[in-house]
Predict the 3D structure of the following.
Amino acid sequence: MRFYLFFILSSFFSFSQVTHTVNAGMFYYEPANLIINQGDVVVWINDQGFHDVNGEVNSITNEPFNNPETFDSPATGEVGAEIYTHTFNISGFYNYDCSVGTHAEQGMVGTITVNPVEENFIEGIWSFGNDFLHITENEITIFFYEDKLDCLIEIPYSYTSSEPGTITLIDSYYGYTFDIEIFVDNNGDLNILPPEEDVEIWSASTLDINSITSMTCSQIDYSQMIGQWELTSMNDVNLSEGLHYMEIFGNGTTIQYDYDVDNNCYEITELTVDFYNEFGEALLTFEDGVEIDAIIIINDSGELAAWVNDQEEVWNSTSFDPLSFSDCSNVSLMDFEEFDASIFPNPAKDNLLVELSHPGEYELIMMNIDGKKIFDGDFKDACNVDVSFLSNGVYLVHIFNSERSIIKTIYIE
């Protein structure tokens, strides 16, 4: 899963903000009469002299300006310094002057007209590449394209409005709450500013919600995954039988059995599979605390398909007895150099004679150089193997029992 979901969204509305500059000098503000939009910012810069910005009480009449909102600043005499900055969030007509000495009487006055801006509500359907947003009054639903599944995964979020221009989004799975900015710009696009991320610009979608939901992934019946499985292919490469098994239990506990060729035993690993939505996205937690993201589904062929660490696995339903697997953790280590097998003639044409340094009952598996099993069989102490049907080439002979294991290379002429 793409786990960027929790930073992608935000508010009710805000405004496309513009910053305006007013220069202040000896008995002037320039421009003296400014027209701006609701939500814009005005910055006053000192060209020369000692000035302030007074939007509270008229310095000439000593009467309140009665502006839609009041503002006032300390005076500064530093040339080039910022006298004051104010964001005008309330529309209306504003008067102000310089309250220093007789500056206002000498003409240092100004006006600002703040035009109202229509609220650009973010509700609707928006698109960003192959992803979609559906925003309603109380819910934001993300439909993001999952290329592995070739469909849209639907993730709903509820939200509350904490203040104008901001909502608090709630991630029900992780329990996160987070605030994000959002607004519709002058082009009619939805601008999203995730925390510590670059702005994302979403366009109004031409698709309706029914068209989008028709592209969503099918929900998974997780009960179909309970059972025993054998890994048959990895990244579209078929695997030999008997190497990897897995059993999934109803509570998410999963046990894997991976064959260790050198030691003729199985590495047994226990992990927990925790699905956090209905589309197969899961968190795998291993015994040592390592966590890995995965996608696990049952495909149309009834196989268990899994994507783990960018590796695609296909498992087929099977049946096995876990007690028949020799656990590598319980197999005592021994010096395998003392165990040897004599195979002759080598190269061979028709038959091979196998003799062992340690008599006993063993299993013999013959494989081609790619590891594909050709045949296997059991024998005691020694055996003759018919190889007359094999093509010329290099082969591997694996001889093992619960205590010993060895692999030999043979040549067929």
